[in-house]
Amino acid sequence: MILCLRRSAILLLASLTCLGCSNDKAASASSSEVPAQSVTQPSAAPSAKSIEPAGPALRIDAARAMQYTKEIVAFGPRWDGSPGMQKVYGYLKGKLKSDQVEEDVFTAQTSIGPVPMRNIIVKFPGAKDGVIVVASHYETNYWLRNTNFVGANDGAATSALLLAMADQLRGKKLEGYSVWLVFLDGEESMTRTWHTSDALWGSRHLAQKWQDDGTSKKVKAFLLADMIGDADLDIYRDENSTPWLEDVVLQAATRLGYQSHFFAATNTVEDDHIPFARAGMPVADIIDLDYGYNNSFHHTTQDTVDKLSVDSLKISGDAILETIRLLNGMANIPPPVQAQPAK
Question: What pLDDT score was predicted for residue 235?
Fold first, then answer.
């Protein structure tokens, strides 16, 4: 609770001192729209310390991930409906042309009117029955459309990480669970003031779709990557995530010697993982929500490639890939919890 209050104070200071900052994603436990206790999943699980990884180690080509980040940023702002968004969509399709790709196309009824959106799902089949999902959003904020906001860390870097993961998974026979990489649309709020009812469009649509068609019961873990290219990498433990799954993420980081970048502080985050948690899936939001001094780069035109680090991309990407190996090695992953009513 103290940490949440500290974070709220930092974000308030940032919003008063830099144009374009907003208090989205970070939320206190008293949020009226997405109370923390409604999305956390206290399922019992084996101690993370007892898990041995399964399958060959995979590691990110971080230099390539940085190059992908630069290529995405070069398209400029990519809010839904913009030329930049169309270019990024074509870019992703080109990079994934040899993979099994599905699209979830829909129209979001937003506060600015109907907005066409699409989620991109890339599937790499595994030998075990079940799916591990790694996701990121790929658009930038509509309300920053009249600025040169390119979202280098907030969307581009993590989309690039997914592309770099695809490079590692492509052409391999996965010994563990299937891995699906999901590029989510419409994460950002349409207005400067954050409202979960006017954001998380792609995740809400896809989570509901998977709940309706039974896919949600096959998902062993949903790992969300957000804002983890930050050169000053400090990933929070999120109280809206599934505790046992966050423990597995920490063990993965510790195995690689990266534990100093993980979970030194705790926060409660509203992000694309929440709809999947509501649909009963175990979730972990892997996010660094302290971007620049007092979060001063977040949702400003200062969110540029020079604020990122190849080392941070390596740490983040390798930790996620190692988390997948640990999940593959778990003898008993807790079953999905009961889905909550859609909101």
Answer: 98
